[in-house]
Every structure is written in structure tokens, then in C-alpha cells.
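User: I'm preparing a small set of examples for a lab meeting where we compare how different chains pack in three dimensions. I only have the primary sequence for this one, and I'd like the structure in C-alpha cell form so I can line it up with the others. Please keep the answer compact; I'll paste it straight into my notes.
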Amino acid sequence: INIDNARLSRDALIHQYEKAINSAFSDVSQALNTRSQIEARINDQSAAVENYRKSVFLAKRRFEVGIDNYLPLLLAQRNLNNAQATLLNLQTLRATNLISLYSALSNDDDF
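Assistant: Understood. Below is the C-alpha cell output for the 111-residue chain.
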């Protein structure tokens, strides 16, 4: 009877171990997939920021030579600021995801 209890206990521990491993692999996989998506969004947003910078430059030049009034320049600057804020939020999201990835890799809930 002690042998049967020991086997049951061993089997339960093995099952717990396998469950923990599967959970860890799932957490790491999810964090890596999220990281990939965030990186793609950061690349797109970085390109948008650069385009808005060019737009501000062009709007400024048009204002300086008298083609446009100041409003298009203000709108271009607002669009650039919004794009930069979005980029910063994505970079923060990337940092948070990196923490989640390290936590999943270390299997430490206190990380």
C-alpha cells in the first residue's frame, strides 16, 4: 500500500511538473509573439514620425516663403506630437513586454 501511495504521489508530481513546463512554454511563446507584433508597430510608427517631421519641415518652409499661413504648420506640429506620443507609448509597451518575457523565462512570479 505504501508503494502504491508513493507511485500515486510520484505520478501527481510528474503531472504537476509537466503542467508547469507547458505553462512556461506557453507564456514564453505568447510574450515572443506579442514582442514581434509590438516591434512591427514600432517600426511603422517610427516611419510615421519621420514622415510627420518632413511634413512639419515643409509646412514651415511654406509659411516662411509666404505660401501658407501659420495654421498648416500648427496642424503639422500637432500631428507630429501625436505620432511621437504614440511611439513613446509603444516603446513603453515593448519594455513592459520585455519584463513579461524575462519573467516567463525565469519562471519567477516575483520578477
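A couple of notes for your slides: The chain has two helices and no strands. Helices lie at 2-64, 71-106.

User: Perfect, thanks.
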